[in-house]
Each structure stands twice: as C-alpha cells, then as structure tokens.
Amino acid sequence: MLTALQETARSERRVSRLVLTCALLGFLALFVAAGVAAWSVLQAQDHARWVEHTYRVQQRISALRTAVERKEAARRGFLLDSTPSRRQLYDQAAGLLPRLVVEVERLTVDNPAQQTNSAELGRLIRQHDQMMQASLALALRDPLAARARFDEDGSRDVLAALRQVTAQMLFIEEQLLHRRVAEQRRSVTILFVALGVAAVLLVVVAVFSIVTLRNYTSGLIKARLRVEELNDELEDRVEERTRDLTRANEEIQRFAYIVSHDLRSPLVNVMGFTGELEAATKPLAALVDAAEAEAPAILSEEARLAAREDLPESIRFIRSSTQKMDRLINAILKLSREGKRVLAPETIDLGTLADGIVASLAHRLEAIGATIEVVRPMPSLVADRLAVEQMLSNLVENAVKYLKPGRPGRIILSAETHRGRIDVKVADNGRGIDPRDHDRIFDLFRRSGTQDQPGEGIGLAHVRALAYRMGGLVECQSALGEGATFTLSLPATPLSSQG
C-alpha cells in the first residue's frame, strides 16, 4: 500500500509539474504574441503614417507642377489676348506657388536629396517668375514684340528644368512609397505569423495538457482502485493483528496477575516470619541484658553485638525489602486491573479537568512556592474520563515532584487540536531529563537522574500504557537543567478498538 501511495504521490507531482509547465508555456506564448502584436501594430501605424506622408508629398509636388503649368498656360493666353480675365488666371496660379514651395520644403525636411531638389525647384520657380513678369510687362506695351520674344527668352528651358526636377522628386517619393508599403506589409505579415505561431503553440499546449490530464486521471483511478484494495486488505490484516494483540495483552495481563498473586503468597510468609522473628528478638535482648548484668563472663562480644545490633538491623533490612516488593507487586496488580477495565468514552472539558488537578495540588504548590498555569481556551475530547485524569495527574505530579531546588517552580498546562488529535502539553522549568533517558523513563520501574524523590517508576509506564490503549502516545522533550515538556497526544474521538 505504501508503494502505491508513493507512486500516486510521484505521479501527482509529475503531472503538477507538467501542467504547470504547460500553463507557463501558454502564458509565455500569449505574452510573446501580445508583444509581437503590439510591436507589429506600432510598426504598422508608423509605416501607415509614412505612407500617408509620402502621398501628401506627392500631392503637393503634383499641385506645384500643375500650378506652374497653369501659370505658363495663362501667360501664353495673355500674350494672345491681353484681357483682364487672362491676367487674373495668371495671378491665381502665381499666388499658389509660394505656399506650395514652402509646404514641399517642410514635408521633405527629413530627406536630404529632396531638400536639394526643393531648393533647386524654388530657384527655378523664382527665375521662371521673373521671366513671366518681364514677358507680361512687354505684352502690355507691345504685344507683337512680346509674342516675338516668346521663343527667345529661355522660359521654355526653365519650364523644362522645372518639369524635370518635379519628375525627379515624384520618382523619389514613388520609390519611398514602394519601400514603405512593403515594410507595412511585412509588419502585418509578422503580426499574422506571430499570432499563428502563438495559436499553434496554444493548441499544442492545450492538447498536451488534455492528454496528460486524461492519462493522469486514468492512472489516478487505477491507483485509487488499487489503494482501495490495499485498504481492504490492510483493514483485514489490522483487524487480525488487533485480535492477536488483544489476545496477547489478555494473556500478559493474566500472567501478570498470576505472577503477582503467586509472588504475594511467599511474600506474606516472609513478612509474617519477619514479624515473629522481630518479636523473638525482644526476649533474646532481655536475656542478653540479664546475662550481662549477672554473669558477664559467659556473654561474648559477638553474641552481644548479634542480639543488639546485627539481628535488629537484618530484620529492618528484610522488612524494608519486603515492603518494597509489596509495592511493586501492587503496581503490577494495578496495571493488570487497569488493562482489564472497560473504557467508557464521554465528552471531557479539559479545562475543567485541569482545574481539578491543580486544586488537588494547591497545598503542596503553596508549600514549595510553585505555580501551575492552565492556558485557555482548552478543547474538549471524547474519551474515558478516569484514564485521562490519571494520565494528566501523573504528568503534573511528576512535574511538581522534579522541580529544581532554588528556582521558583512554574508549570504550564496547555492543549491544542491538530489534524483530528488533541495534544496536551505539560511543561515545567524543573531539573530536566537527560536526552538518553527520554525513552526509557516510560519503561516499568525505570527512573532517571538523582533518586531523591519517593516512587517506584510506574507512573510514566502507566501513562504510556493508557495512552496506547486509547490510540494515543506520549513523548518527552527535555535537556538537563532546562525543564521538561511532556506531550500527550490523543484522538479527539475514541477509536473503535478502544475498550
């Protein structure tokens, strides 16, 4: 099952990376397409502006050339018929030329070649205008002489030069127009190509993502079916293992009960004979006292020491050992009976339970100058009240018992909910526990550090046994001289296996 879950997790990570890569590629394609589109639009606008500019230059050059032709035609008409209407046509054409020359010069300021042509065009127009003015003045005085000089004044050559310059300027603008239109079309082509590539890339990414997700979904369905099968198998195995453990636990409990019961019988005998032996020492001591008073010669030093010191000391040692043995047997019996007790889950307010434990230790805390702080709010849980109270009492009493002398004792009791479990922490600023003993202090009859406090080493073992039975665990975090923190982790609701 673990392998299937690991494979599913690896598959999910792989698909997540692929989908993320596809999304990044898609966004990158859109970003590039948008950038290229923006650049192409700006280029197209720029080229369109220059194309429009070229058309305007061509229009102004053509208008200027038309005005020159009209001016020349009006002059010829005036030479043939010197009427005011003919002169008016000439003046109208001549009045347009200065403005058109200025516009052409302004529009071609970006083109050095056209600037040269514009300067030449202005010079020829001025020269032509001087010839026109002289011809018109002569026509007013002597029309026949003016007509005779028409072919000899050189105006035809100037007009031909004007036509050549304007034709050259129009040719240059036509070349610019072809180039700018081509650039405009190239920008549009680049735009369409970029959009096409982005569209193709998006389609590829979409298809790849769909295929990947489809394969992943198919694999996920298969993995889930496999996990369900493994879960069914695991539940059967867990149930079987639980039955085995239950039987083994019951057997251990029976064994512990039988052993403790069988040990108690000879222990009772030893304790009884010890009492009789102690009672017998009194007349023996009296006899030694009488012998020492009446016939001291018959009493040896060894006999006197044996009756007065060795025998009472041995009896005290036997009694102390039997009392300790009795306490150990009682502890085993207690653990055995706790293992047989049926747990009765109920809703427990941990804050109220903690207050009760603190109240039971109030006199002891006052005597040693220690305080216990219950951090609120504290959650509620559903569990066996007696078991929870025993576990917390043991942990709090241990914290009080092993406070460091000379340091004001401070114990903090807190609890929090985490992923369906409730972690209860008992933290103190006491003497601390060597990290090497963090695990073994939960073993039966095992203690850590200086043994200057009463106890048999069964409290923490009892806590761990109850925690395991309730589906929980207990652990310790501590360092010497820095206090200790015990964490009791229990399910918020009872497990089905409890009882």
Automatic annotation (TrEMBL):
Residues 213-251 form a coiled coil. Its EC number is 2.7.13.3. CDD domains: HisKA, HK9-like_sensor. The keyword Phosphoprotein applies. It catalyses: ATP + protein L-histidine = ADP + protein N-phospho-L-histidine. Residues 258-494 form the Histidine kinase domain. Keywords: Coiled coil, Kinase, Membrane, Phosphoprotein, Transferase, Transmembrane, Transmembrane helix. The keyword Transmembrane applies. SUPFAM superfamilies: ATPase domain of HSP90 chaperone/DNA topoisomerase II/histidine kinase, Homodimeric domain of signal transducing histidine kinase. InterPro entries: BphY/WalK/GraS-like, CHASE3, HATPase_C_sf, HATPase_dom, His_kinase_dom, HisK_dim/P_dom, HisK_dim/P_sf, Sig_transdc_His_kin-like_C. The chain crosses the membrane at residues 18-42, 188-211. Pfam families: CHASE3, HATPase_c, HisKA. This is histidine kinase. It comes from Sphingomonas morindae.
